[in-house]
Design goal:
This protein has 253 residues and is mostly helical. It is 60% helix and 2% strand. The chain has helices at residues 2-28, 42-53, 81-90, 96-119, 125-137, 150-165, 169-182, 189-199, 206-223, 245-250, and strands at 59-60, 72-73. Strands 1-2 form a two-stranded antiparallel ribbon. Helix 2 (42-53) packs across helix 3 (81-90), helix 4 (96-119) runs antiparallel to helix 5 and helix 7 runs antiparallel to helix 8 (189-199).
């Protein structure tokens, strides 16, 4: 039990300190850090909406959106991976907003655990803990705690890079596939998975690796079409839409 605690306390401490500092900053800015909707902003509403209702048919914007009536509004520009995870956790009889908060927190904590595990055999304390501190407190770390796919994307991207660095491009491609469903930058991981295949002269692996990453990149293209029939009820077409991001978050708080 002691080795587990010794290995587990640094990432857990980094996670708790980062969340505490974020709560202090939120309170100083007039936000209640104990309200879940304090961690949700404009894009958050669309991920929650996709998790709750699926992709909807684009329509002309309504007056409450603040956009002109001739503009088109919808949620098809947001990738489905994060919303899938929210949808799964929402089946635990919690609101989509609470589910999103849990998904983000788990992904962030696992990111820190992974960084800590990968550096724990370094010779010096600075080499062991500096990467963990950077992972927890890098500029813009607030996005790892918000209702946004940054934490899941970073976690899957790290796994992809780790697998490729150890010559396991197929596993890396599988993680990259998940990353590509969370954020468009995941498509760039295709180059990362190709490098170990070329270096180790295992060109045959490039085909399945490319298929995996291509699947992740194309998932959004298929799921975001309103007429698409995805295997999850949350992604069935819906002809009713609400374009107000603020009201979407508020209805799930």
């Amino acid at each position: 039990m002691q080795p587990v605690f010794r290995r587990g306390w640094p990432p857990l401490a980094a996670f708790l300190i980062q969340r505490a500092l974020l709560a202090i900053c939120a309170a100083s800015a007039g936000q209640d850090p104990f309200r879940l909707d304090s961690y949700a902003r404009w894009d958050s509403a669309f991920y929650l909406d996709i998790a709750a209702r699926g992709y909807v048919t684009p329509a002309h914007c309504t007056p409450d959106t603040g956009y002109p009536a001739w503009a088109w509004c919808g949620n098809s520009a947001w990738f489905p991976g994060y919303s899938w995870a929210i949808w799964l956790f929402a089946h635990l009889r919690v609101s989509p907003l609470a589910a999103a908060f849990v998904v983000t927190a788990i992904a962030q904590l696992v990111c820190l655990v992974a960084v800590s595990e990968w550096t724990r055999h370094e010779a010096t304390a600075i080499s062991r803990y500096a990467p963990l501190a950077l992972a927890a407190f890098f500029p813009g770390n607030v996005y790892l705690a918000t209702i946004f796919p940054t934490a899941p994307f970073v976690l899957l991207a790290l796994i992809c890079l780790r697998c490729c660095s150890f010559g396991r491009p197929l596993r890396g491609a599988a993680a990259g596939c998940g990353a590509a469903t969370c954020h468009p930058l995941g498509a760039l991981l295709a180059f990362v998975t190709a490098l170990p295949c070329l270096y180790r002269r295992r060109r045959a692996w490039m085909v399945p690796a490319g298929v995996l990453l291509g699947t992740g990149s194309c998932t959004w293209c298929c799921a975001s079409r309103p007429e698409a029939r995805m295997p999850f009820p949350a992604f069935k077409p819906n002809t009713v839409m609400t374009c107000s991001a603020a009201s979407t978050v508020g209805s799930r708080g």
